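A quick aside before the break. I want you to see a complete sequence-to-structure record at least once, exactly as it would be stored in a machine-readable document. Don't worry about memorizing anything.
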Amino acid sequence: MEAAFLKKRNWSSRAIFEDVATSGWINPGIDQSFKAFFMADLVSEYDSVNLYNFLYTRRREFSPYFVQYLDFWYADERNHADGFFELNRLVFGADERELINYLKGRVGDFTGLEDILASEFNLLLLFAYDEYVSVKTYKKDTFYQDFGHPGFNLWIKNLIADEAIHFGNAIKILKTFHADKLDRAESILRKIGGFEGAEYKNTFLFDHDGPHFQLDSDEVGEIVINEILSILQKRSL
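That is the input. The structure line, written in tokens, reads:
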């Protein structure tokens, strides 16, 4: 059987946390400061719905591969949001109805992002940048191993693997179908990097101003741009 062009992993956040909840797990006294941390991660992952809906009406202008990319990415991000939702309920006893009502009221503001959202090529570079940064920051979340059940660590490892695949899929589409435009990648990536430090507007993108974001300013922007450009210049992933 021929391998699929884009990769997709299939697993369930809710199933993992259901296993934790029914295992007899007892909260070892997880610090209350994580409450704001996990809520910031929840809203960031949930806001993928705002970006997906914003791009949905433009599906006809995108290649079939990028349309599939968006559908795979969105399914994964919803699964990640489900995980943070269940994490907040399990660890802090958050009320399900209150969480749902809070999330449903979020609206994305894409003002100012028009140029970098203007084409499939730009969007692929944007996703590559965002997912690369996500892998870097989630890798610093080593505290899950102290939560008293291996399911927590399994969950974050699955999430990191998804983000890495999103990055790899974006790079694959860029190198396969947009090779003639790669000479423009550096200038576009620098525009993307220029949004670092801007106010987060519920767009899923550049959600780097909350307590959940553990990278320093010298770990984003220029260094990420150079690493992506290096990967794009290689013949294969």
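Two observations worth writing down. The chain has nine helices and no strands. The chain has one domain: 30-233. We'll return to this after the break.
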